[in-house]
Amino acid sequence: MNNSSLSMIFLLLAIAGLVFGISVVAVSRRKARAVPKIQRAVTEKTPIAPVLDTAVVDAVVLDAAVQIAPPLSVRDRLAKARSSLSGAVGSVLGRGDINDATWIELEEALLRADVGVRVAQSLLGALQARVKAKEITTPTQLIDALRNNMSSQLIGTSRDLNFEANIGGPNIWLMVGVNGAGKTTSLGKIAAQQIALGRTVLMAAGDTFRAAAGEQLSTWAERSGAQIVRGAEGGDPSSVIFDGVQSAHSRNIDLVLADTAGRLQSNTNLMEELRKVRRVAEKGAGKVTEVLLVIDATTGQNGLQQARQFTDATQVTGVVLTKLDGSAKGGIVFAIETELGIPVKLVGLGETIDDLVLFNPTEFIDALFE
């Protein structure tokens, strides 16, 4: 092989090596350009749905349920009172006739509801006479007649809160009742409702003997937008209420709501103090147009005794029956109205301001029987 042949071979090998090297470089560059795309495709993060705290979710769902839940009806709120009658009514309706067991069951049910012995005997006595005269012959007719008789004892009574315009001074509403009945709270709710009606209100903190009564009333005044007059703890209640009336008159305020002491109704000194409060309240420019006795419905017949004593001392004009939604003794309404002739004007069916409502006898009777 001559020199020229060797030179040709080396030249071809060099060219082949060069071509190979160029190919390697080209392939490497293509791979290099492809790698970032692959990396981005792999490393790009897919959005992940947030993990919610189950407690938070439950709270939101519960809150939504509370907001959309319809308000309880009067019937729902009086479930405990209805329970006193519902069992007996169902049992009577389940019989084919009216017999001795019928009267026993109805009397026991009325007494459990706390209508009182006198009212129960009056209601059933009238029905027994009609059964004897064959005017009532079936259990269904008997229950309908009982319902109508109970309604007739309540319907027709005026239950409006007395407010007199153009009397030259503020109307004065005295709130009386034993401690724990809900007197101060009821006063606060009434204040808020009267202000919502467009009247101006001043509270007189006349319960100077109970610790924190003034603070409680001040809180209600702040919530409702009412004015308030307070005295020293242990001071003279009559003076506080008199000062409140004078202050209201000077500011042209429409209504004075006066809180009073509420120790045990058997305390003779308390009744004398309330008589004094009643007299002093009208010595100024105002006029007492309501004396509202606040009774806890759960006390039953004891409330009737309270009504007698407070009426003797202060000439009660109406009753505020609190906690009726939590009591099986709603029959006290009948005892108060039939035995004392005092109308139940307001009833408490819950904790909020709107749960203190004007007493509606028709709704009340319907809730007891339906």
Give the helices and strands, then pairings.
Elements: H1 3-43, H2 54-68, H3 74-77, H4 79-93, H5 100-112, H6 117-132, H7 139-152, E1 171-176, H8 183-196, E2 201-205, H9 213-224, E3 227-229, H10 237-250, E4 255-259, H11 268-281, E5 287-296, H12 301-314, E6 318-322, H13 332-340, E7 344-348, E8 356-358, H14 361-369
Parallel strand pairs: 1-4, 1-5, 2-3, 2-4, 5-6, 6-7
Antiparallel strand pairs: 7-8
Helix pairs in contact: 4-5, 5-6, 6-7, 8-9, 10-11, 11-12, 12-13
Entry keywords:
370 residues; alpha/beta; eight-stranded mixed beta sheet; 55% helix
Report the order of strands and helices: HHHHHHHEHEHEHEHEHEHEEH
Query: Which strand order do you get reading across the main beta sheet?
Result: 3-2-4-1-5-6-7-8
Tertiary shape: flat
pLDDT averaged over residues: 80
Distance between the termini: 127 Å
Instruction: Name the structural class.
Output: alpha/beta
* Record field, number of beta strands: 8
What is the rounded Rg?
40 Å
Q: State the major sheet.
A: 8 strands, mixed
Low-confidence stretches: 30-70
How many H/I helical runs?
A: 14
Helix content: 55-70%
> How much of the polypeptide forms β-strand, as a percent range?
5-15%
